[in-house]
Amino acid sequence: MLTNVEHIGIAVKDILASNNLFTKLFNVAPYKSESVESEGVTTSFFKINSTKVELLEATSPDSAIAKFIEKRGEGIHHIAFEVDNILLEMQRLEEEGFVLLNKEPKQGADNKLVCFLHPKGTNGVLIELCQERV
Ligand code: ZN
What we know:
Low-confidence stretches: none
Largest sheet: 8 strands, mixed
Strand order of the largest sheet: 2-3-4-1-5-8-7-6
Bound molecules: zinc ion
Helix content: 10-25%
Strand content: 35-45%
Mean pLDDT: 96
Number of strands: 8
C-alpha cells in the first residue's frame, strides 16, 4: 500500500549552490547529505514539517541524473511514495503492467529500500517507491 509522499526529488547541477538556495527558500538547512555511489549521485535532504525534498547532483557523467539534466535541464526529477511493503507493491504494480526499473529493491539514500517505475508508463513522471530499512 502507498501511504504518503515521502519526498520530492530535484535534479541540480551544483548541490552546494542549491543547498544554499533551498536553505534560504525553506529557512532550514539540510538535515542530511549523502552519496549513493551505486547511483552516481550526491544527495541532500531538507525537511519542512512532514514534507521532504531531496536534491540530487550527479557524481559522474553517465549517472541517470547527469543524463536527465542534459536532456531536460534542472528540475523535478521524481516523486517518492512511501510503501508499507515494497515487495508486495512491486509485485502488484508489475501485475498492473507498470515497468519496474529494478526487479529487486535496491539501497537508496536516507536508509531506504527503493524501486523506480519507468516514466513511460506513468505519464512521464518518474515514481520512486521507498520503504524504511529496518
Ligand atoms: Zn528519491
